[in-house]
Design brief:
This protein is α/β, with parallel strands linked by helices. The protein contains 20 helices and 13 strands. Strands 9-8-7-10-11 form a 5-stranded parallel sheet, with helices on both faces. Helix 8 crosses helix 11.
């Protein structure tokens, strides 16, 4: 056949393309998993979408040398959000003329943030007092939406769309929707939202004033189910406000029109406010950290793998959708093979530190493979059943030094968003294998930390 050209007819070419596409879909659904990781078609590096944050690497080789040791990993935690908070505001302060010298002195005394701590581990953001002071004197956008509006959205009913990860998105989207549209947000005292949130934050058993704090933090009204809404216009239009599943599905699908950097800042502030009121009982948000690390929890360096199987076939379809937008591998984050995990942890020296697995338990083969791996197995920690629950697992993931998650999981997405809100980097959700140009395949990040907030990547899960 050398030197001959194959000419397709106008009718044959489309048919062959359709046949090829069908074969590819079939193979993606049925091929052996180990073969996926070794022989999947690898895109060239220049086709990978750039990340939208300061952690973007310019080439595959740069990813390997970005963090050479565990010490440098700690030093690199200060990503753009916390740098903006800690440095630029105070740089502007020195040039700003304040009428009262006492106010100026008070602010300057706080140049070095006392970081917010969660379960004894420090974040890279300030305490409640630090941020309140900044909001007070720098006129940050801390006004409540809907102050001059007669339009109101009400979260009511005991049913919501999806599981906990989805419900967290729905609550955060409700806050964003109210702020974007300048509407008042109200929540009935017996709603799904109050029940979910009080499991993890604002526990009334330990704080009689939780309701007033909650209303102030999030600019919401807590109302009783039978309270009259006379004089209010209930939004969104066209939905039965008593159908809580329909309303929460609407909120889950809501995508803000804010620019990405402003959306990240807005959502980050909501998440920070939640964790200034995290529960220590009756179920403690610190249960997983306490059970695994005990007295060493303050300074221990550890990684977390979140394995979410996503009910098999539906999970594969969702991952393939994520793969089309972010160019991540279509199955690797579902399967968490040792090779995939080690490609993340080895370059930053974290194979020598504890590795915690949090899981939905639907695919026990993942834990089995990791335990049998000679490098990962000795460092792997499983959360004791007595300490394993949604809140404890969330905190374990958020407060880790490195997080390896599944971009198709809203639970992983919340953890990654909270880590950005706390000023943590090293969120690994979007990875694939690429050709380096010399015949070698190499695991690289296809989309950076900020992509969990990017609607172009995650759509309604952003």
């Amino acid at each position: 056949m050398t030197g001959r050209k194959l000419i397709l007819s106008r009718t044959a070419a489309p048919l062959l393309l359709l046949l090829a596409a069908a074969i590819i879909v079939f193979l993606l659904s049925h091929r052996d998993v180990e073969t996926n990781l070794e022989t999947a078609a690898a895109p060239q590096w220049d086709t990978i979408r750039p990340s939208l944050d300061l952690r973007t690497a310019a080439s595959p080789s740069q990813l390997d040398v970005t963090h050479a040791s565990a010490a440098s990993l700690l030093q690199s935690q200060d990503i753009w959000y916390s740098r903006w908070m800690n440095n630029e505001i105070y740089a502007n302060l020195k040039e700003k003329e304040l009428n009262e010298r006492s106010i100026r002195a008070e602010l300057l005394d706080r140049q070095n943030f006392q970081p917010l701590s969660v379960c004894g581990r420090k974040t890279n953001v300030g305490t409640t007092q630090d941020l309140t002071l900044l909001e007070k004197y720098f006129k940050m956008d801390n006004t409540c939406p809907g102050e001059n509006s007669k339009k109101i959205m009400v979260l009511r009913g005991d049913l919501a769309h999806g599981r906990t990860g989805n419900n967290l998105i729905e609550f955060l989207h409700a806050l964003q929707f109210a702020r974007d549209m300048d509407y008042q947000l109200a929540i009935t005292s017996n709603s799904w939202a109050i029940e979910m949130l009080r499991m993890m934050w604002f526990n009334p058993s330990y704080d009689d004033g939780w309701a007033a704090k909650f209303e102030k933090e999030f600019c919401v009204k807590i109302i009783q189910p039978d309270d009259s809404l006379k004089g209010w216009v209930v939004v969104p239009y066209g939905l039965n406000p008593n159908n809580s599943v329909a309303v929460t599905k609407y909120l889950f699908d809501y995508q803000s029109e804010l620019p990405l950097d402003k959306y990240i800042a807005s959502q980050s502030r909501f998440i920070q406010k939640l964790f200034r009121h995290y529960n220590l009982g009756p179920e403690s948000m610190c249960s997983g950290i306490n059970a695994i690390f005990g007295d060493d929890k303050k300074d221990v360096m550890y990684s977390v793998i979140h394995n979410r199987h996503l009910e098999g076939a539906p999970g594969l379809r969702l991952m393939q959708r994520m793969s089309r937008t972010s160019r991540c591998h279509p199955t690797a984050a579902l399967e968490m093979y040792p090779e995939y995990v080690k490609s993340i942890l080895r370059p930053i020296g974290m194979l020598n530190h504890p590795i915690v697995l949090i899981t939905d338990g639907e695919n026990p083969d993942v834990a089995k493979r990791l335990l049998e791996d000679p490098e990962i197995g000795p460092m792997l920690r499983l959360v004791p059943e007595s300490a394993s629950w949604i809140g404890g697992d969330i905190t374990l993931g958020i407060m880790s030094n490195v997080f390896i998650g599944n971009p198709a999981s809203s639970f992983s997405g919340f953890i990654a968003k909270a880590r950005i809100a706390f000023g943590f980097g090293h969120n690994h959700l979007f990875r694939t294998k690429v050709s380096t140009g010399i015949g070698k395949l190499e695991w690289v990040t296809t989309c950076g930390d900020a992509c969990v907030f990017d609607k172009n990547m995650l759509g309604n899960m952003s």
